[in-house]
Design brief:
Blueprint: E1 3-7, E2 22-23, H1 27-42, H2 48-64, H3 110-120, H4 130-138, H5 144-153, H6 164-180, E3 203-208, E4 218-222, E5 228-230, E6 245-250, E7 257-262, E8 267-273, H7 282-288, H8 290-298, E9 302-303, H9 308-311
Parallel strand pairs: 3-8, 8-9
Antiparallel strand pairs: 1-6, 2-5, 3-4, 4-5, 6-7, 7-8
Length: about 300
């Protein structure tokens, strides 16, 4: 396979409506859709077994979202919630220094334990590899809240790398539930526009919309809380530079998946195009297109926002 390169200056510019600045996640459908998409992608995929395992994790995440609903906002926050003073109503240019669910300033509670219990139960499925089963069952003897805190801080011990995926999966449930409970009118962009305005985490990918009131708009999707936020096209999500951007894709592919590369910072980010595939689910499709990552990385680019299940 080879990579096809398109300069962003060569792309047609269609007019779009005014996009919503922030779209909060819907836990009632997020993980079940992710699981369905993973199973579709797994068919005849060289990493099919891995994708089906992650689908089982997504099933467990969906079940964990059922009976547990968090209080409105983040009442377990260590410091006062940032952005709580502005009057209601969206100001598209409004930015605050700290997101309302800053990952490094939260205390985990029962919903995290509840989510992790559902994920550990995946170990009872006879289809998963023995290694994964041992890791999941071994979580019973560990201080999982401490491990989760280390994961959020980027200090997960190397010897616990195997536990990172289930820990991250439980954190996704915890942050998604709390993100969904926020008042979207009080969520504002951060000074670093490429970071999630709800939890401050990196986006797993971008999606170019093909429907709704703003077709053609780009939304970045958080890899932790699943919040989506509008980010101008033809601007690097890492450094903000607009010059020297190009799109890399597999020659002869569908055009639904591309890597946006930046000459200024030598980074890249995945972009998905709904006009080519309306079934795209950014987290699942990112895992299903790791082959593009390998090709772009081999060409000298560094990924700006890794998938947390892979970087774990």
């Amino acid at each position: 396979m080879t990579i096809k390169t398109t300069d962003l200056g060569d792309l047609p510019r269609g007019s779009i409506g005014q996009p919503d600045p922030v779209i909060l996640p819907d836990p009632s459908v997020l993980f079940v859709r992710r699981a369905e998409r993973l199973r579709v992608l797994a068919v005849a995929h060289p990493m099919g077994d891995w994708l089906r395992f992650v689908a089982l994790i997504a099933d467990a995440q969906h079940r964990a979202c059922g009976p547990v609903r968090p209080p409105c906002g983040n009442q377990d926050k260590v410091v006062p919630e940032a952005g709580s003073s502005p009057a209601p109503g969206h100001d598209d240019g409004k930015r605050v220094d700290e997101p309302p669910l800053a990952a490094a300033m939260t205390r985990l509670d029962a919903p995290f334990d509840h989510a992790l219990a559902h994920i550990v139960a995946v170990g009872d499925d006879p289809s998963i590899p023995d290694v994964a089963r041992e890791i999941l069952r071994g979580l019973h003897s560990l201080d999982t809240r401490a491990l989760a805190g280390a994961w959020l801080a980027g200090t997960m011990p190397a010897q616990r790398a195997g536990e990172a995926v289930p820990i991250c999966a439980a954190l996704q449930v915890w942050f998604t539930l709390r993100a969904a409970a926020l008042d979207v009118s009080r969520v504002h962009l951060l000074p670093r526009l490429g970071l999630c305005p709800v939890c401050g985490a990196a986006p797993v990918a971008g999606v170019i919309t093909a429907s709704g009131k703003a077709p053609g708009a780009r939304y970045l999707h958080c890899g932790l809380c699943a919040t989506a936020w509008n980010y101008v096209r033809a601007s690097c999500i890492g450094c903000g530079e607009s010059k020297g951007l190009a799109l890399q894709e597999v020659e002869g592919g569908t055009g639904a998946i591309k890597a946006e590369t930046c000459e200024a910072c030598h980074g890249y980010a995945k972009m998905f195009y709904q006009a080519k595939d309306m079934a795209i689910e950014p987290f699942a499709d990112d895992l299903g297109s790791l082959g593009l990552d390998l090709m772009v990385s081999d060409a000298g680019w560094s990924r700006l926002a890794p998938n947390p299940f892979v970087s774990a």
